[in-house]
Design brief:
319 residues, alpha+beta, seven-stranded mixed sheet, five-stranded antiparallel sheet, 14 strands
Length: 319
């Protein structure tokens, strides 16, 4: 991996949102303006919107709040959080270390080069714009005990965001958070382990905070960020709050399963009592969403009959 010391120093200098000249950077970092420009290009590759104005220098579109490990740890008495500036994937970072982790260990990153979404999709992860967080948990009962876990994570995330000021955030079965009918956050739960053995679970969460429209069309659905909705949430506070709430929720889930959280879903359900389309492979099933049952299955009303579905994805599109 190439040395990223200089790009990280540059982004910290730019984070105030003011203009900085190439000459100023050169004096501060002891290098030529040409070399500075090369490192600025690295920031752009990370998704940082650095623009230049002749005679004024480099600037961002606004101040950038960077993750601060000391602040995050001050909110978490147990600690056990790693703050990474640049990583391929926070989920992969933990999955590579399951042999040495304790339940509740977490990591958070400024940028993911190979962030993952569900079904092998790429999760666009520009530097400093969003939250990319992963948490490890060992389920002694094995992989089968993880049924419904992604729903629980959605409930916890939505409740934390609502408490921090995003009151209109809702959950979308089975793995997303929505705001104003557009995707705000995604959840990826990855499990390793054999039947009969403990399961190593890595919970990944990506939340759009201030991400700008990417130059390349890498996102194929409607999305929103909190900044666009006029909501400002401190990234360090959000990181610590999510980790703390997940650490408290997981022992309850281990003991009682999804049923302990079932009643909290309906108040957060973005699609409750709305016409939806359920896609299961090549099948398309239309009906009225009626929430989920205690096993986490989607309930769809069709011709005055309610049926439960465990697989697929729902959408309002194309109705």
């Amino acid at each position: 991996m190439k040395d990223i010391t200089v790009p990280l120093r540059l982004v910290r200098l730019l984070a105030d949102g003011d203009f900085h000249s190439g000459e100023q950077f050169g004096e501060t970092l002891g290098m030529s303006r040409a070399a500075i420009n090369k490192h600025i290009q690295t920031l752009r590759e990370w998704g940082v919107d650095v623009f230049t104005v002749p005679g004024k220098g480099y600037s961002l579109h606004g101040p950038l709040q960077l993750l601060d490990e000391n602040i995050i740890l001050s909110y978490l008495p147990e600690g056990r959080v790693t703050v990474l500036p640049v990583i391929d994937s926070t989920n992969q970072y933990l999955m590579d270390r399951t042999a040495t982790l304790r339940s509740g260990d977490a990591c958070v990153a400024e940028y993911q080069g190979q962030g993952r979404g569900r079904r092998g999709r790429h999760w666009f992860s520009p530097f400093g714009a969003n939250l990319y967080l992963s948490l490890y948990w060992r389920l002694e009962q094995g992989p089968a005990a993880a049924i419904g876990l992604s729903l629980v994570i959605g409930i916890i995330m939505a409740e934390v965001l609502q408490r921090l000021g995003a009151q209109e955030v809702r959950v979308k079965w089975p793995n997303d958070l929505y705001l104003h009918d557009r995707k705000l956050a995604g959840i990826l739960v990855e499990i390793s382990g054999k039947a009969g053995d403990a399961a190593h679970v890595v919970i990944g969460a990506g939340i759009n905070l201030s991400m700008r429209e990417p130059l390349n069309p890498v996102i194929d659905q409607g999305w929103i960020n909190l900044q666009e909705a006029g909501i400002k949430i401190d990234r360090n506070d959000l990181t610590a709050s999510l980790i703390n709430e997940l650490r408290q929720a997981m022992p309850i889930f281990e003991r009682d399963g999804f049923s302990a959280f079932h009643q909290r879903w309906q108040a957060l359900d973005n699609y409750f009592n709305r016409p939806v389309k359920l896609l299961i492979g090549d099948r398309e099933i239309k009906g009225i969403a009626q929430g989920i049952n205690s096993q986490g299955a989607l309930l769809l009303e069709q011709d005055n009959e309610v049926k439960a579905y465990l697989g697929g994805e729902i959408s309002l599109r194309g109705l």
